[in-house]
Amino acid sequence: MSPRLLIIGGTDEARRLALAVQGRVDMISSLAGRVSSPRLPVGEVRIGGFGGPDGLAAWLRAERITMIVDASHPFAARMTDSAVKAADGTGIPLLVLRRPGWAPEPGDDWRWTATLEEAAERLPRIGTRAFLTTGRRSLPAFTHLDDVWFLARSVDTPEPPFPRQMEVLLSRGPYTREGELHLLRAHHIDVIVTKDSGGTMTSAKLTAARELGLPVVVVRRPPPPPGVPTAATVAEAVTWLDGLIAR
């Protein structure tokens, strides 16, 4: 069977991986379809869910996929779980490509939490004007906080439920230090809430928070699946793929 690659995408790493292997292997990228105008990778693209692990396994067989790279968002735990189960059930090699998480630097005031719910529980004791950058699907966790004003940044317009005191900023990264400093000052932000997504696309807010002395509530990312090979960079993923293609 000729090598055929599925890239489970939606991230900058997934797009760069598709570009890196273009012309070297038959491939298809899959996007969840959660944003209205996603950035598309090169090559063939499918958009939409698979219907859980069984649906993904059936699709893998039908499409004659021989290798999988899960380059989905670090917080897309359900998609990764489906990929692991489908790969195990079909015997198809799977690599999880995850950019490293962020690490605090001198001068940072980070408050780590395990979940969005914990972040919401702690938030009123930290600040009252919050810059919320955890994604529109996270907003229900904060709906009960009537004494906190939120500036919520999102690619697409969020749907209820969401906090009563909230302004929505529709925007897509990458962002700059200067832009984030202006935003935080203009809205009198006194706390930032974010997920540990890692990467450089949205990290400028952390630099700005450090310069302004603002606390940052950081939700820890899910752990990688046990027993599955992982890569931290696109180059590492390409090396893994080259090893399979050469067999």
Could you explain how this protein is built, in words?
- This protein is an alpha/beta fold.
- It folds into 2 domains: 4-100 and 223-246, Rossmann fold (3-Layer(aba) Sandwich); 110-219, 3-Layer(aba) Sandwich (Rossmann fold).
- It is 30% helix and 22% strand.
- Strands 3-2-1-4-5-12 form a 6-stranded parallel beta sheet, with helices on both faces. Strands 6-11-10-7-8-9 form a 6-stranded parallel beta sheet.
- The protein is elongated.
Q: What assembly state would you assign to the polypeptide chains in this entry?
A: single chain
Overall radius of gyration = 19 Å
Are there runs of 5+ residues with pLDDT below 50, and where?
A: none
Series of secondary-structure elements, N-terminal to C-terminal:
EHEEHEHEEHEEEHEHEEH
Q: Number of DSSP strands?
A: 12
Query: Helical element count?
Result: 7
Domain count:
2
CATH topological fold name of the largest domain: Rossmann fold
The coarse silhouette is: elongated
Pathway: Cofactor biosynthesis; adenosylcobalamin biosynthesis
Protein name: Precorrin-6A reductase
GO molecular function: precorrin-6A reductase activity
InterPro entries: Precorrin-6x_reduct
